[in-house]
UniProtKB/TrEMBL annotation:
Residues 4-237 form the ABC transporter domain. It comes from the Bacteria. SMART domains: AAA (SM00382). This is Iron(III) transport system ATP-binding protein. GO terms for cellular component: ATP-binding cassette (ABC) transporter complex. Keywords: ATP-binding, Nucleotide-binding, Transport. Pfam families: ABC_tran, TOBE_2. Transmembrane segments: none annotated. One of its GO terms (molecular function) is ATP binding. InterPro entries: AAA+_ATPase, ABC_SmlMolc_Importer, ABC_transporter-like_ATP-bd, ABC_transporter-like_CS, Mo/tungstate-bd_C_term_dom, P-loop_NTPase, Transp-assoc_OB_typ2. PANTHER family: SPERMIDINE/PUTRESCINE IMPORT ATP-BINDING PROTEIN POTA (PTHR42781), SPERMIDINE_PUTRESCINE IMPORT ATP-BINDING PROTEIN POTA (PTHR42781:SF4).
Length: 318
């Protein structure tokens, strides 16, 4: 049996357009899936529906075969087993780190509570900050507290709604690596929402792409990279150069080889130093402006350049 099943979920806010359109997804126990979509594509709405915090217009969510009910059908919306972690932390500002993590356990036995909080503080490396207030912590530390708060109830499913967007790149990478290991240890099922492909790839190899409330493509990144279903899926991974006279067909900068004498002629208009190559902006004889990768850093501004690519690498039609 599928562990977490999202079955044809539909959502229309009052007086609005459909935000989710027949969205279906199955997750196995312990699976970590990154869901990528542009701003406004319905990701947060989907997570709130999965958590039982938002009414859906049609479709169902099942956890281990049991139906997750809409908030309007339940006295206290939501489930202890499914926890949502928000981008803006949602911490109690006047409570310490320890108190924040303890709060969801208000009704639990004192001994259990103490043991649980201690283990979470340890798991997240927050022991030395336990008496601090959220505002005395860095963004990354606050985000860890938010995750600790969600973990205190021993959830089976963790829903992460763009939790790292306020952190800098290094903080994000470190935290994601740490969490990835932790999720595996805890065998928690995770749906991680982001608009950032790098964050998604750091977190998991299972990607789901959503656009305008619809599931566009899911699978391993390599598969989506080589066989994108639409322009959004293709563009997520890199810039796309339009092939002259072949409308809707494109070639990626990384799939183009540069030569000094044979191939499609172009002229270097701009050169930008990037970590692994110079990114050249070139103009083809047919007028198109392309981006190419000069890995040997050998071409300069105004220089003539010749381009070749393998027809098998062409993507489209989109
Ligand atoms: N409570 C609400 N009432 C009415 N419309 C809403 C409500 N919440 C979200 N929407 C609309 O639903 C659409 C999807 O919003 P949602 O927040 O789910 O997208 P998202 O992909 O999470 O975006 P972001 O990445 O910017 O957080 C947007 O057009 C938004 O304006």
């Amino acid at each position: 049996m599928t562990y977490l099943k999202l079955d044809k979920i539909q959502k229309i806010y009052e007086n609005g357009q459909p935000v989710l359109k027949e969205f279906s997804l199955n997750l196995e126990r312990g699976q970590v899936v990154s869901l990528i979509g542009e701003s406004g594509s319905g990701k947060s709405t989907l997570l709130r529906i999965v958590a039982g915090l938002e009414n859906r217009n049609a479709g169902e969510v099942y956890l281990e075969g049991l139906r997750i009910v809409n908030p309007k059908e339940k006295l206290v919306p939501g489930y202890d087993e499914i926890q949502l972690v928000y981008q803006d932390y949602h911490l109690y500002p006047n409570s310490t780190v320890e108190e924040n993590i303890t709060r969801p356990l208000l009704l639990y036995d004192k001994n259990y509570k103490e043991k649980r909080v201690k283990s979470i503080l340890k798991l997240l490396g927050l022991e030395k900050f336990k008496d601090k207030l959220p505002r005395q912590l860095s963004g990354g530390q606050q985000q860890k507290v938010a995750i600790g708060k969600a973990l205190s109830l021993e959830p089976q499913v963790l829903l992460l709604d763009e939790p790292f967007s306020s952190l800098d790149t290094i903080q994000r990478r470190e935290l994601i690596a740490e969490l990835r290991g932790m999720f595996a240890t805890l065998e928690v099922t995770v749906l991680f929402v982001t608009h950032d492909l790098d964050d998604a790839l750091q977190m998991s190899n299972d990607l789901v792409l959503v656009q305008h409330g619809k599931l566009i493509q899911k699978g391993h990144p390599e598969e989506i990279f080589s066989k994108p279903r639409n322009l959004y899926a293709a563009k997520l991974f890199s810039h796309l150069n339009p092939i002259p006279y072949q409308q809707q067909y494109f070639i990626r900068p990384s799939d183009i080889q540069l030569f000094k004498s044979t191939g499609v002629p172009a002229k270097v208009k701009e050169s930008q130093y990037l970590v692994h190559y110079n990114q050249l902006t070139v103009q083809l004889g047919t007028g198109e402006i392309w981006k190419v990768e000069d890995k040997k850093r050998e071409f300069g501004l105004g220089q003539k350049i010749y381009l070749k690519w393998d027809e098998g690498k062409v993507v489209g039609p989109f």
